[in-house]
Amino acid sequence: MARYTGPKHKLARREGVNILEKSSASLERRLNVMPGIQSRRGGRRKTSEYGLQLREKQQLKRSYGLLEKQFRKYVEMAQKSHENTDEMLIQLLEGRLDNVVYRLGFSNSRNMARQFVTHGHVTVDGKRVSIPSYNVKIGEKVSLDKKLLKNEVLKLHIEETASNLLPYLERKDTVGKLAKKPTTDEVPNPADYQLVIEFYSR
To answer: Which of 17, 30, 176, 196 could form a disulfide with 171 if both were Cys (CB 3.0 to 4.6 A apart)?
Structure first.
């Protein structure tokens, strides 16, 4: 199955929530209007329990830009762990290198962060890593290569996001790290993790 590369607003409208984690007046006005022909038939219908679980799963999966096989793998890993399943799932998702690059403010989207990683522009503890799914360990230093940092637009974005880091991250100039394991209440994801777990437990 190919990764979705179309308009992100369309995905958000399909889910009925802002999965983009960024404010948009245009999107907020249209969140309750389904894309396509459904929008002309009176909006959303009442959803079954399975439908609710499916929607929550789709929201979380699409937030991180993952394919079904990748996302299922993370859920299965969380279910097999000896820790709280919800907490472990979010730690696995947030620990992805492309996500850490995005959360540190080194890119303005996860898609851009994934491109930076696959094109070899990201280092972990000084070593180039080109695998977006690489699991960043607590304390490992993540940074962008100097060539990429010559981009003035990117430099401005990094400067503007310096004071907006989530509580489990630390950053000094253009070097950042996971300072601790994230918890579900610290991560701004519009999803019910328990419903996601229940979907795969059926």
So the answer is: 176
Cα→Cα distances 60→35, 67, 138, 147, Å: 19, 11, 23, 33
Structure tokens at 183: 């918890």
- Amino acid in position 50: Y
Q: Do domains 8-82+189-200 and 96-181 have the same CATH topology?
A: no
From the CA atom positions of the chain, what is the Rg in Å? 18
CA distance 72 to 135: 16
Structure tokens, 26: 């245009």
Whose tokens are 């890993």? That residue is 77
pLDDT of residue 191: 86
State how far the Cα of 12 lies from the Cα of 145, in Å rounded to an integer: 32
- Of residues 109 and 21, which shows the higher confidence score? 109
How do the domains of the chain map onto residue ranges? 8-82+189-200, 96-181
User: What six digits make up the tokens of 27?
Assistant: 């999107």
Q: Is the pTM for the entire model greater than 0.85?
A: no
CATH number of 96-181: 3.10.290.10
164-176 confidence digits (pLDDT tens): 999 999 999 999 9
| Position 27 confidence tier, pLDDT thresholds 50, 70, 90 | low
